[in-house]
Amino acid sequence: MSADTDRGEPGHDPSTWTLDQLRTYLHDACGQQLEAARVVAQGHAYDSTRPEDVRRQWAKLSLLANRRMLADGEGQYARVTQQEFMLRMWVIDRLGPDDTDPDWSPEALASVTLAALTFTPAQAAALAGGWRDLAFERIRELRWHKNLTAHLDCLVGYLAPGPTRDHLVTWAAIRRRLP
Asked: CA–CA separation, 8 vs 77, rounded Å?
């Protein structure tokens, strides 16, 4: 991209771009460009000097970049998914839940978290007991589960009592035993 600001094009430093400039950039971005855009947008979302509605817009843009990485096959599923879960949890916790938007709904985040887990809690607990003796691939799967459940201690506080909350409480306890 050109640094020629007279033509309305952003300079080379994406951290200085407006929300609309970064959104336009994302349209054709790929690979490391998506990751850079995700990080920049997330940084703006974390900026406490901005109004909450603007911070949510930046967070949405970070989620868009993250989801594009996954859709384009640019990122590892577990890493990209964990990044999404953590940002969504951060927004819910810091800016407040919003049940009208699935990205900021604790119940929606709980559902997608459970859907992302390939082990049952009982399977994960059984494997965690002797994880040092497992094959590398199985240890990696347990690590993915640990990473994909990193937000649960915070999330359960936003959920009404019931089976979903109970399931996540169980996962949060098992998570502590995973490698």
From this structure: 36
- Is the four-CA dihedral 90, 91, 95, 100 of positive or negative sign? negative
pTM (2 d.p.): 0.88
The answer to whether residue 3 scores a pLDDT higher than 80 is no
Per-residue pLDDT reduced to its tens digit, 54-111: 999 999 999 999 999 887 776 688 899 999 999 999 999 999 999 999 999 999 999 9
Query: Three-class SS string for 50-89?
Result: CCHHHHHHHHHHHHHHHHHHHHCCCCCHHHHHHHHHHHHH
Q: What are the backbone dihedrals phi and psi of residue 52, each rounded to the nearest 5 degrees, phi first?
A: -60, -40
Closest CA to 22 of 30, 32, 31, 10: 10
Structural contact between residues 171 and 149, judged by C-beta atoms closer than 8 angstroms? yes
Distance CA 24, CA 28 (A): 8
